[in-house]
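Hi,

Apologies if this is the wrong queue. I'm a grad student, and the batch job for Trehalose 6-phosphate phosphatase from Paucimonas lemoignei produced an output file that my downstream script rejects. I'm not sure whether the problem is my script or the file. Here is the sequence I used:
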Amino acid sequence: MRALFSEHGQARLRELMRPGVLCAFDFDGTLAPITSDPAGAFLTPEVLERLLRLTAVTPIAVLTGRSLADIRGRLGFEPTYVVGNHGVEGMSEAAELERHAAISQTWRQQLAVLLGGQPDIAKDILTEDKRYSLSLHYRAAADQAKAAAILRDLIGQLAPAPRLVTGKCVFNLLPPDSYDKGRALVELMKRSGAASAVYVGDDVTDEDVFRLRRHDVLSVRVEYMSNSAADFYIPDHADIARLLDELIERLSSRKGNAASPAAGPESG
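Support response: The file is valid. Your script probably expects a header line. Output copied below for reference.
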């Protein structure tokens, strides 16, 4: 994983930033800063202003772990595509979604019983019901390592067994045969007709995209992590504005060049 703002990173941006490139982003920790309370996450005015400018020059996708009902009220703009629940919402057919919802509710009932037997940590666990998936947040636990170990054990007792996606002090429980962010991005490229894509994320949930390792996809992680499969990284969330500026500038200049008529011979 190399620095995006290095010479090599800039070369890759020049290569992939063509008209119609799909620019896709995670939300929490990427477009919006991480907060202790998930309900408090919103775009900063600086990031929102840049996203509005970016939508004018290329299609944008937001791929998030949040439900569609939750994320739409936090954006402040209308992306070309919005995919929720780590790839489940926005990609699956209605019948499949209802099956996912039934599985999720079964897990919630099972967890209510299982957590009832763990009074020491139950009070510190926030169960986020996103209808088609569940997220178990343990950031408030006094001993996070202990809480994580207990939750892993409880999750192992659920039936049917979920597809488990870990995050920053959170376990995401997804239907075993559902879309992930990687599959979702590939499908969105097909639907949009994009010849290339840029994807920016910050968490374990984004590794499904990073692991694609496709030449037509440039993957960027927010903050360096030695074992990430991402191609490049930016140092921290504060650099997302600079990255958006880079994308806007490159696409705007190419659009301008494409719109300029070729110079003809001088008339005499």
